[in-house]
Every structure is written in C-alpha cells, then in structure tokens.
Amino acid sequence: MNRTSYIAFASILVGCAVLGLKMLAFWLTGSVALYSDALESVVNVATAIATAAAVRYSALPPDSNHPYGHHKAEYFAAVLIGVLIILAAASILHEAYYAFHSPRQIEAPAQGLVVNGIAGVINLIWAQILIRYGRKHRSPSMAADGRHLMTDVLSSAGVIIGIALAIATGWQQLDAVLAALVALNILWSGWQVMRESVAGLMDVAVPPELLDQIRGIIAAEANGAIEAHDVRTRIAGSATFVDFHLVVPGDMTVTCAHDICDRVEQALKREVPGSTISIHVEPENKAKHAGIVVV
After folding, report:
1. Dihedral of the CA atoms 92, 98, 101, 102 (nearest 10)?
2. CA 201 to CA 193: how far, in whole Å?
3. How far is CA 135 from CA 89, 138, 144, 145, in A?
4. Where, by residue number, does the polypeptide cross the bilayer (predicted)?
5. Are residues 166 and 231 in the same domain?
6. Are 203 and 240 a contacting pair, CB within 8 Å?
C-alpha cells in the first residue's frame, strides 16, 4: 500500500472520530444545528471510504481492458461525494424546517460546544493535509475530500457562534436558521466538487501555465527537428497525456528522429511527473509554420 492509500484510509479513521464527537455534542444539547453538523460528518465518513477505494483502484497499472490506466476512477468518487453532500443537505433542510416551527430547548450548551469545537479543530488539521497532498500529487478525489472538510470546519465555526447567540438572545429559532445555512453551504460545496469532477471526465486540458511549460520543453529539447504542431493535452487524475506532431527534415534517418523523440519524451516526463507522451513524426513538407519553432 502506497502513501496515498495510507492517507486515504486514515481519513476514514479521522472521519469516524469526528463523527463520534459531533454526535456526542448533539446528544448533549439536542440542537438541530449540531445535528446538521453531525450529519455532515456522516457524509465525511462515506466520502472517505469512497475516496480510499478510488485511490486504490486508480493506482492499478494499465491492463488489456484499460490501456491508459485507471486514473479516472477518482473522478467517479468525487461525483459520488457531491451526490452524498446534496442528500445530506436535503436531510438537514427537512429537520431545520420542523425545528423552526417547533423550537427545541438547547441543553448543556457549554459542554456541547466545547466537544464540537474539538471536532472542528481535528477537521481543520486533516483538511489541510488532504488539500496539500491532493494538490501535490494531483489526486482530485483527495483534494475534493479536503475541500469538503474545510466547508465542514467553516460551518462548524458558524454553528458554534450562532448557538452562542441563540442562547444569549433567547431566540431558539436561530438554531434552525443556522442548520438551514449549514445545508446551503453544503449544497454549494457539493456543486463545486461535482463541477470539477465532470471537467475531469470530459478530458480537460492542462492549465495554460503548464501548457506553456510543455511547449517550452519541446522547443528546447527537439533540436534537429524543424517544428512541432498540434500539441494536445488532457488530464486524468494524477496522469497527464501529451501528444503532438514533430516535423523533421525529409532526409533524416528513422534512428535520428527516434533519438529526438526520446530526448523530448525524457525531458517532459522529468518536468511533468506522471505524463504519457505520444509523438507523431512527419517529414518537412508537412510543416504548418504555425506551431512550436524548435530552438
């Protein structure tokens, strides 16, 4: 099991611990806002399980049925995360509606808020770990899980402040209003996660700055060739696919052209980890004079 898988499975343990603390806070207080916070942690545990499974599956090497690898499995997990978030928000809105019309007395608020605060701190630390690791290793499902945890941290902070205000002002309906706001925040988070996942499933290109870097590497390393054109890229999880046409002199031997391709491919793989390169070699009469001019 690699480090990514260890972190993904650790998320399950962290999610269960936070869920236990938030359920305790809800049990102590009876607050529907704390119930909404606890329900979001149920989603966290479910999404942590989905992320762990996706990370493990996406790490499998290419096979005869999946010659380009299993990287997109992480995007399906991210879509599942978005769906679960939306279902949790709907459940919270349902409870908030009835709690607004039939306000509940908040019991033992101090103890409940302290317990919920501890859970929020744990989530904050773990969310930062997931986001940084997901960005560094280009794991969309792990980064999505981390961003969702950050929304949980923000909503938990808002719930704690709101419940304190409800107790201070005596306006019990504020508890239900807070729960509804938490649900809307969760819905926004779910939309963001699903939008990014759909972009990955649609073979989105690399960011412009990375494309410029790729084009610069080709221009610097393909000396002996004439130009490169029709550079295309796509991202699939932690993998980057790059293909382009390389124009060489018509009298160049296959061996020399192959050496240039090897040099460019090695440079790209060195600077763009996890990249797969496909190069189509063409004679000089195929030059478009509109691509990358080789240095």
Report:
1. -110
2. 13
3. 27, 5, 10, 12
4. 7-28, 75-93, 113-133, 153-171, 177-194
5. no
6. no
> Where do we find the tokens 């794991």?
139
Q: For residue 21, what pLDDT is reported? A: 92
Q: Are residues 72 and 216 in the same domain?
A: no
Two structure tokens written together for 188: 């926004």
Looking at 201, 227, 258, the residue that finishes a domain is 201
How far is 230 from 243, CA to CA, in rounded Å? 8
Domain range for 260: 208-293
Shortest CA distance to 15 belongs to which of 38, 48, 55, 52? 48
Whether residue 274 sits in one domain with residue 142 = no
Task: Tell me which residue has tokens 């679960």.
Answer: 84
In this structure, are residues 202 and 151 in contact, taking their beta carbons and an 8 Å threshold? no
Q: Which residues contact 208 (CB under 8 A, 6 or more apart)?
A: none
Query: Are 194 and 222 contained in the same domain?
Result: no
Q: Are 261 and 163 within one domain?
A: no
CA 41 to CA 49: how far, in whole Å? 12
Domain boundary among 151, 166, 201: 201
Whole-structure pTM value? 0.57
| DSSP state for residue 126 in the 8-state scheme | H
* Single-letter residue type at 51: T
Which amino acid is it at 208? P
How far, in Å, CA of 216 to CA of 115, rounded? 53
- 13-67, pLDDT tens digit by residue? 988 999 999 999 888 888 877 877 787 787 778 777 777 777 777 777 888 888 7
